[in-house]
Amino acid sequence: MAANPENPATAAPRAPGRKASRHRGEGQWAAGHFTPLNGNEQFKKDDDGLNVRTRIETIYSKRGFHSIDPNDLRGRMRWWGLYTQRKPGIDGGKTAILEPEELDDEYFMLRVRIDGGRLTTAQLRVIGEISQEFARGTADITDRQNIQYHWIRIEDMPEIWRRLEGVGLSTTEACGDTPRVILGSPVAGIAEDEIIDGTPAVEEINRRFIGNPAFSNLPRKFKTAISGSPLLDVAHEINDVAFVGVVHPDLGPGFDLWVGGGLSTNPKIGQRLGAWVPLEDVPDVFEGVISIFRDYGYRRLRNRARLKFLLADWGTAKFRQVLQDEYLLRKLADGPAPEQPVQRWRDHIGVHRQRDGRFYVGFAPRVGRVDGTVLTKIADLAAAHGSGRLSTTVEQKMIVLDVAEDQVDSLVEGLEALDLTARPSSFRRGTMACTGIEFCKLAIVETKARGASLIDELERRIPDFDEPITININGCPNACARIQVADIGLKGQLVLDADGNQVEGYQVHLGGALGLQAGFGRKVRGLKVTAAELPDYVERVLKRFQAERADGERFAT
Ligand code: SF4
């Protein structure tokens, strides 16, 4: 059913006779509350974010940056993957002080959604070409399998969309209060150990729900993950809805349903509803969960709007009951939990045999940073070795798929020549960084360059370190690089150095993890390191761990 807050009579599915709940004050549509309670809800009510595309193509791209309506510029543009980027040269101390218009550059970040992380070589080549022609060479691999450009001019957007859409790529709802990119196992359909291939569900959800006005005004962003890999390779624990491959003892392979995960404000690990979902039902169950979020989700405070807050109030039993009784109109089968993965790395780095006898090769740039030239070379290299497909991972890495055995060594060598190794150190493999102060308006400190230099320093200082380790670096208190679930999480902030000067640094969180023992790292009270001290600090922590660990002990224990 299409939800239109302009027309409360048709806005949201409501059970007959349902009374306004005590949460009417949270702006829930299902409680009959359609009066916007904040500026974001107002601009979404005034006009669907999806409609900004027409204005970009017919007005803004022709008249330039200064013709853009402020509610489009800092609001609806996101529905098409566009954020203004940070003006260069503004230090982190001013982030919280300046007005948005003082921080805004006249250029944009543009996010290309890559559902399931799956790309053809032709698509990657186009991504690389756009980067070189329109984005000053920038192109980062994000930890949600997307590609992100910077330096985009509004004037170039029609041509960029023409090229992306010409090869089946899109920026639709890559940002905004929408169903964001659908994470999928980067080795879906090819891995030897796969429980079930979720690709048909990823594609069907994309076809039915992305760019659909019935779901383009959600209380907040809505994140989805689907994977049938026993490695649990899509960070399902921190998505609003996740479908995780399991084998039901009677019904066979299917998915275990998780809801309500999310980091940032009040981080929560998603919770199991105890329900088993067959592959063909995944899109309908997705529709039920996202509809609950649209209809019952809180719309008063943006930092209390994610699905996790509704789940915390309802509990899993009520959530499942509402899903079944009001949306699916049938019961879901009970099902088992996923099993503990046999290894800690979940990124598919290295050379692995596929179930069809060919191989896939996962490789690691540093902190997801590549550029347009490199992406084009990767596409050429993959094609020259007989591959037509690649994947992006949720660890800011990439994989070349479908490589014949006699091509593997040459491909690995070619990647090495591009400084993209399939045999990375634990540091290069396990370090991620968000965008940071280079482009992000919310940032307080540098992240990408610092992450890359930290990797190089640690490789030099502890060359024999061979444990799985995750080091995640954020440029501010948000959670784009998942600091809460890293072994070593570094939250960017200004700190005092030994001389009492305010300098860039990090609050340290230790011992977080994803997986079946997922949990948040402990904020080490009072432990803040300056950026200059960071390599020394991490080296000390890791060397102590090396010296004191018991057999098989992992960092987080
Ligand atoms: Fe920007 Fe903060 Fe997100 Fe990093 S964590 S990309 S600095 S909002």
UniProtKB/TrEMBL annotation:
- What are the start and end residues of every segment in region (Disordered)? 1-46
Coiled-coil ranges per UniProt: none
Q: Which terms does the record give in the GO molecular function aspect? A: 4 iron, 4 sulfur cluster binding; heme binding; metal ion binding; sulfite reductase (ferredoxin) activity
Q: Supply the EC number(s).
A: 1.8.7.1
Q: Report the residue ranges that make up the Nitrite/Sulfite reductase ferredoxin-like domain in this protein.
A: 104-165, 352-417
- One family name in Pfam for this protein: NIR_SIR
Which stretches does UniProt call biased (Low complexity)? 1-15
Q: Which reaction does it catalyse?
A: hydrogen sulfide + 6 oxidized [2Fe-2S]-[ferredoxin] + 3 H2O = sulfite + 6 reduced [2Fe-2S]-[ferredoxin] + 7 H(+)
The family line of this record is: Belongs to the nitrite and sulfite reductase 4Fe-4S domain family.
Primary role: Catalyzes the reduction of sulfite to sulfide, a step in the biosynthesis of sulfur-containing amino acids and cofactors.
Query: What name goes with this protein?
Result: assimilatory sulfite reductase (ferredoxin)
